[in-house]
Amino acid sequence: MKNKGSRGNRGFNNNWYDKYNWLTGSEKRNKLYCWSCLLFSETKQSPWTSGYDDLKHLSESLQKHGNSEQHTHASLKFKLFGKNNIQDSIDSAHVQSILKHNELVKENREIITRLIDMIIYLATQEQAFRGHNESRDSLNQGNFRELASLLSKYDNKFKVFLDESSVFTGLSKTIQNELIESINKVISEIIENEIKMSPFFSWQVDETTDINCRSQVSVIFRYVKEGKAVERFMGFFDASEGRTAADLFNLLTENFSKYDITNKLIGQTYDGASVMSGELNGLQSRVKQIAPQALFTHCYAHRLNLILQDASTSIKECRFFCKHKRISHIFF
């Protein structure tokens, strides 16, 4: 490139290309350009976009243009050119991954909802969950598995899940127990909040023996909710370590002291056994020591039971039969 001046032709030094990497030239037009501005400048009025040919003031013009705001913006766009598209692709793939994950989570929640409904149904109907033989060849795999099989006939999404799921089927005893515990926790929290909002409550406690001949205590709470008396089963509690009045008192206070027994317990109901209803050392007397307002009421449901129990003790054959019946579990 050459430029005519008063003292002859001026030649262009190619070293300028090394010093300014944005500088480019056209031999055909015999002009210099700024490559960044040529591509991304918002205005085309600059000589560096229309063509620069003043070699006499080239050094000054190069430095001035390189520091200009227009050139800085164009250079930034040039540096980012191509990278935005890659980032957009990455962002798009990431969004699709999130959407796919969310859809999978939604489907899994729908499956869990079905399993929870099955558990609530069987528990409400007081049906056993597991069967004696839960293998695929069994004619009766238990209520839980059989109910799942029945629902899958009318629910294609549930059927696909049962047929294709290899890691988590939701039918194992471990999953059943974990879901039961989760349901129990949610229900317990609801009951706990209701009791805390109620100004008072009463309880009914009864000691019984399970199928393994282990002693356990069942507890029922009664309180007022929205103007109506409601009754809630609080659970079974192991009492095999001791069934004295002191043991039962400790069991109740350890599990239910969070409900402010001292101020809110106004009634207590037990059977007629001395360990429960005794006025001096029975459970009811111990409860009254911490909650004097808790009136004791004999459980009406136990009247017939106690009459039959007392009557049978006077019959020798009945006493022997019941005695041998109580110890038969040791051998079976």
Explain briefly what this protein structure is.
This protein is of the alpha/beta class. It is built from 15 helices and nine strands.
What does this structure look like?
There is one protein chain. The chain has 332 residues and is α/β, with parallel strands linked by helices. It has three domains: 2-80, no CATH class; 100-180, no CATH class; 198-298, Nucleotidyltransferase, domain 5. Helix content is 52%, strand content 17%. The protein contains 15 helices and nine strands. It has helices at residues 15-19, 35-40, 47-50, 58-66, 69-80, 83-124, 143-152, 156-164, 173-197, 245-256, 261-264, 274-277, 283-290, 303-312, 316-327, and strands at 2-5, 8-11, 23-26, 31-34, 201-209, 215-225, 228-238, 265-270, 295-298. The protein has a five-stranded mixed β-sheet. α6 packs across α7 (143-152) and α6 (83-124) crosses α9. The radius of gyration is 43 Å and the shape is elongated. The mean pLDDT is 83.
